[in-house]
Amino acid sequence: MSNRSSGEDLTQGNLYKQIIIFSIPLILSNLLQVAFNLADVIVAGRFAGAEALGSVGCTTNLVALFTTFLVGVGSAVNVQVAHGVGMKKEKEVEETMHTAFVVCLIMGLIISILAIAFTGIILRAMNTKDELYRDAVIYMRIYMCGLPALALFNCGNAVYSAVGNTRKPLFFLIISGIANVLFNLLTVIGFGLGAPGVAIASAVSQYLAAALVVISLMREKGIIKLDLKKLKPRRARAIALVRLGLPSGFQYSIFQIANVFIQRGLNSFDAVTVEGAAVANNIDILTYEIMAAFYTACCSFIGQNYGAGNAKRMKKAYLITTMYACLAAFISGALIYLFGRQLLHLFTTEEGVIEAGMMKLSVMAISYWLSAFMDNTSAASRGLGKTLVPNISIIMGSCVFRIIWVCTIFEYFHTVQSLYFVYMFSWTITSIGEIIYFIFIFRKETAKFKKQLA
């Protein structure tokens, strides 16, 4: 089976170089996906005022709760396709891919409906400020209409990543990202729609990105060619995707559930503090998305090499991607610490909001590297097709622990700093559990390879 026309063979070659080449387009793709919400916040803050900025910004964690679930489902597609490519099973890749598009679209529709229905209730439960609530609800409901498109794009992006092609999704995101900015300016400045206007722009841009990736796959001539006539769920493939995808989706969104509690704690402070944290979140997330590219690389490289039975290369891929993710965290953290104020000025000119934003960024800048051990080890386990135990570890370390922290440590000190330190401690605890499990499961899988060769 040849996949050269559609991607790269990740089972041979110089890993240091391959992972960088693989990851750079992913970094840019991830940053462009973030740019949808980032452009919303910039346009809202600069052209629609502080209230519009707060309305969009206070939904960041809630938007991430739903969108990261779909990203997690997409990671399951990546693993399944990568395994098929590694084992050189063309029919398996074809069936998995066509089933995945149907499953992802259905999940996108379901999440969209649920998000639209319960947005108001969740925002009230988060103690959203009254002056921000109305526009925040409208923004969320419009934005959530784009989730089916986001699900389709993530599916196509996962397929391309599984065969080592991260350039095409990047190109499509560049186009849709430019369109998003133009639509933002048109709806906010041209039509004066404020927060609802930026939501419309984001939803339209997501559908554009989805259309581009689907059309591209339909035009492929290799093993990942998308044929609309073959779009039907194969029961066995669908079950495998759901079994891997749902835990992955929950794993991605678990953080956001805990962050909703953190947002609730933030909402106990004044509006300036809330707005400052909202602006900081949009800089904060840039670092996570840069690091996330290496996690996708880890999952893809381990997935293909697991299919090929190459344990030595799997271990090396894990160590290299962890090193690169930590390096990205140190560099990004240093830049944010040094130039945080200038970055915050992109979103707002209000000094009080900038001071509040720097309060968060100062804590986060020294903490990012800890998350690399947790997230990349979890990605490595997903590459082996294991999600249940990593999910339990993340639920306990990064969800339950954070909620307990908010209800105890934060309630006792009730300072913004005591709220932000939860990230550092939760990442450390979760990393320990993830690493112990990965060592165990890797040794088990390695022993299985040795038996097959004997």
The shape is globular
- Count of helical segments? 15
Total number of domains:
1
- Which structural category do the helix and sheet elements fall into? mainly alpha
Helix content: over 70%
Question: Sheet bearing the most strands, described?
Answer: none
Radius of gyration: 21 Å
Low-confidence stretches: 1-5
Distance between the termini: 26 Å
Number of strands: 0
Oligomer: single chain
Order of helices and strands: HHHHHHHHHHHHHHH
Mean pLDDT: 84
Strand content: under 5%
Describe the structure.
- The structure is a single chain.
- This protein has one domain.
- It contains 15 helices and no strands.
- The chain has helices at 15-48, 50-57, 60-86, 90-125, 130-144, 147-162, 167-190, 194-218, 235-266, 271-308, 311-344, 351-365, 368-383, 388-413, 416-453.
- The protein starts with 14 loop residues before the first helix and ends with a helix.
- Residues 1-5 have low confidence and may be disordered.
Summarize the topology.
Elements: H1 15-48, H2 50-57, H3 60-86, H4 90-125, H5 130-144, H6 147-162, H7 167-190, H8 194-218, H9 235-266, H10 271-308, H11 311-344, H12 351-365, H13 368-383, H14 388-413, H15 416-453
Helix pairs in contact: 1-2, 1-7, 1-8, 1-10, 2-5, 2-10, 3-4, 3-6, 3-9, 3-10, 4-5, 4-6, 4-9, 5-8, 6-8, 7-8, 9-14, 10-11, 10-12, 10-13, 11-12, 11-13, 12-15, 13-15, 14-15
